Amino acid sequence: MRIAIFPAAFLCLATALVRAEGQTVIASDEGNVIVHPIEHASFVLEAGDQRIAFDPVGGADRSPELDGVGLVLVTDIHGDHFDAATLADLAGNGARIVAPAAVADRMDPGLAAATTVLANGKTTTVGGVAIEAVPMYNLTKSFHPKGRGNGYVLTLSGLRIYVSGDTEGTREMRGLEGIDVAFVCMNLPYTMDVEQAADAVVEMQPRIAYPYHYRGEDGLADVERFAELVHAKNDAIEVRQLDWYPGD
Fold it and tell me: Which of 43, 49, 120, 132 has the fewest CB within 10 Å, making it most exposed?
């Protein structure tokens, strides 16, 4: 019995590992993009020799994925998105920063000098990466007023990649066109529930959707339910689920 069981168990484990690795690779004819989740709102996108960090907090030595980061995008002023000490360490190693004015206003002069301020609806190019700031805000609450924070659309390896930041399903989010990959928040009471997030994603029609930033006051959102709701309306959208909370 053991001879029969162990190979099968090994095969299942190997298959699971391959599937998990495949979830992090976004295929592109211009070079694949690899997703490195760190925790909650923090992650790194890797494309060739480029590493782009989103909302890094907790220290530049928190994750090896932050080594070699050349560009950092910050979405908002809250502590799970903005950590001046982490940004200073990364900037000291040569990273450029893109952030809204509300974030830059909280920086010391040295850090602000390494930062490109980008307002809602504006675009810039840093290190060859085209970046568009998308309004992120609450529709029914007051945690995130319109105009303060940024979601982002960036073009990387020929892919249009959207990162929501803290938002509800706004008209600007729903109206995005040509999005290949979307990283979408869903945590109550601060952003939106899985139903609103799924509805917005279906309207946006990305090729791939990653739920992220899904820990709220009552624990983790039901990301499996999010996937079910998306697939019920558009099963062509691939919903990928990564481990954004390794300590939970």
Answer: 49
Q: Are strands 25-26 and 238-239 parallel, antiparallel or unpaired?
A: unpaired
**pTM for this structure?**
0.91
Contact by Cβ (8 Å): 31, 48: yes
Closest-CA residue to 212 (of 81, 99, 49, 88): 81
Which two three-digit tokens encode residue 38? 């760190």
At 168 the three-state DSSP class reads coil
What single letter denotes the amino acid at residue 125?
A: T
Q: Which region among 14-18, 96-100, 243-247 has the lowest average model confidence (pLDDT)? A: 14-18
Provide mean pLDDT across the span 189-209: 97
| Rounded Cα–Cα distance for residues 204 and 197 (Å) | 10
Dump pLDDT digits (tens) for 117-144.
999 999 999 999 999 999 999 999 999 9
Question: Which residues in 23-42 are b (16+ Cβ under 10 Å) and which e?
Answer: bbebeeeeeebebbbbbbbb
Residue 194 contacts residue 223 (beta carbons within 8 Å): yes
